[in-house]
Amino acid sequence: MDTSNTASSPAARKPYGMLALFDSAPAIYEAARTVREAGYSRWDALTPFPVHGLDGAMGLGRSRVPVFVFIGGVIGFFVGMWLAWWMGYYNYPLIVGGKPYFSPIFPFPIAYELTILLAAFGALGGMFVCNRLPMHNHPVFNYENFRSLTDDKFAVVIEAEDPLFDAEGTRTFLEELGPLEVTALYDEEDDA
Amino acid sequence: MNTTKDSLSHPDGGGARPAVLEEVRPANMPRRPIVENQRTFAWITQKVCGIVEGRAPLWWWVAFVISSMVASFTVMGLIYLTATGVGVWGLSHPVFWGWAIINFVFWIGIGHAGTLISAILCLLKQKWRTSINRAAEAMTIFAVMCAGIFPLFHVGRVWFAWWLFPLPNANVIWPNFRSPLEWDVFAVSTYGTVSALFWYMGMIPDLATLRDRVKSVYEKRLAEAKNGAQRTFETAYYQFRKYFYGVLAMGWRGSNRHWSNYEMAYLLLAGLSTPLVLSVHTIVSFDFAVANLPGWHTTIFPPYFVAGAIFSGFGMVLTLMLPLRALFGLQDLITQYHIDCMCKICLATGSMVGYAYAMEFFIAWYGANPYEGFAFVNRAFGQYSWAYWIMITCNVISPQFFWFAAARRNLVLVFILSIFINVGMWFERFVITVSSLANDFLPANWNYYSPTIIDIFTFAGTFGIFGFFFLLFIRFLPLLAFAEIKAVTPQADPHHHHDNGNDDGHK
Questions:
Q1: Residue B394 has what DSSP assignment?
Q2: What is the ipTM of this complex?
Q3: Residue span of the structural domain in which A76 resides
């Protein structure tokens, strides 16, 4: 978040992309749709809260978090059943109240709770994995107005690595969307 | 929603419309706003972050000191118990499940409202939940911590409490998975863990906002510092806040690609927490219902316990949120509409609990089991009838005031009734636990159970522990889920501007 180095020596910076700032949910929605229709692929929208319908406007596919949840849940269920079987039937069979050593019925609450426990870890972990979080730093944090993006402003960022990106053309394109401002973002050089 | 006149009367809309439809005038019933006075996003951010970023008010310090002192009751009580033995509690033949299990069920039950608000109301798309879910989830976690203390120390030799978990020990023996008490170990520890995960994940975007504000808050506070000592403190506090929020926010930057995964994970956690919360109190009720004791051995227990848990939890949410709303001036975010909704849930669940009480009596009579019949007559008219009627008054009669809008608007009355609900639900667990144990099958076994002073202080102290953690939560973490609140304001709708004008106010 310390931008003093990069600001003082422009030579040590490499372009990351172009950011356009908007001040309302309808504006970011329209902007996202226009950017998508223009054919950009490496770009993102930054919003302080999930804007309803923005996934569709950006053309995002379905999230892959459910895969992690399903795997977690299946592991949890079988671990629960296996625990009760291995401990009560295999490793140390012990007669308690004349009940069978193992039955799929009585360990069901254990398997049920472990299903939920590991599926929940799958949800949180899956969210982190899919989002590549935690991330120590990111070029958008170099934007001097970043603070407002977790408060009440919205932004579209088109990355310089996008095949359609062109410093002048992309700036003009973004300015036509009616933003509050358009700013070039820079990344710090790896060995600067 | 928006397809009113235009699309219906469109020539392509298919065939002639009955003439009577032209005369239908839909009633104009605007939804009550979730955020009042058309507050902006920036106002909401400032309002909630300001609580954490400002200086601690005097009442906070007073409450914190009192809570810490009260919490020491539990600490002292538990030290004395560990040094002496479980006999310091009033447990004796035939009541060996006294206040410990009552307090455990009481605290676990309180937690359930937090999960109901965060999970079940999320699945039901109840947008008003966003203003209260964060504090209610915090309440859940701290309530589960308070609950866990009692069974942990009730095992007697607390240094062997890890035997509850299936861990290898020197006796090479494993837990008995046939026992509801072992199911409870899994249910409660899963519940505590999943609640914490859900709470934390919901907080990440708000923590990112706090992180981004740390520097400007520091600059402002440093300018206000009067001397070197204050400046040193502000700098040290800045370093702490920078790393605390920076680490917890995990580098969140509000990317919509992230929001997409985040919302999916949130929805799935809500979907997982819903069966979880229902299963936890179901399994807690199995602790009783699986035993062959009249008054415990009933199939109504799981739904009855879950309804009671939600009832007591909403009582506690009201007890906590009404003072906070007044102290922090949150009237625009926690509106009368929110209070109405919570009161109505108390009314509904309180009436369900009342129905369960009546149905237990009916089944006790209809089942024609003399022991079962006696257990219930004994509850209402036996040696613990005083507790039974406190329970009926607090749980069944007091929420009936919430039928009336005037009662729901009288916040002092709502606060008092919420305390009644808390008291009543504690007595419900007392009645269930003690009256069945004290008067079992053989009159020769009967006895009258009373708690000791250690019981009373240990339980009273848990309110201090709860208050201690809740006050710390208020100081350091965002009290309201403001990213979610912003998302349910009218200006968050990306089609907001288009609706104006062509829609006759019918929306």
A1: I
A2: 0.91
A3: 66-130
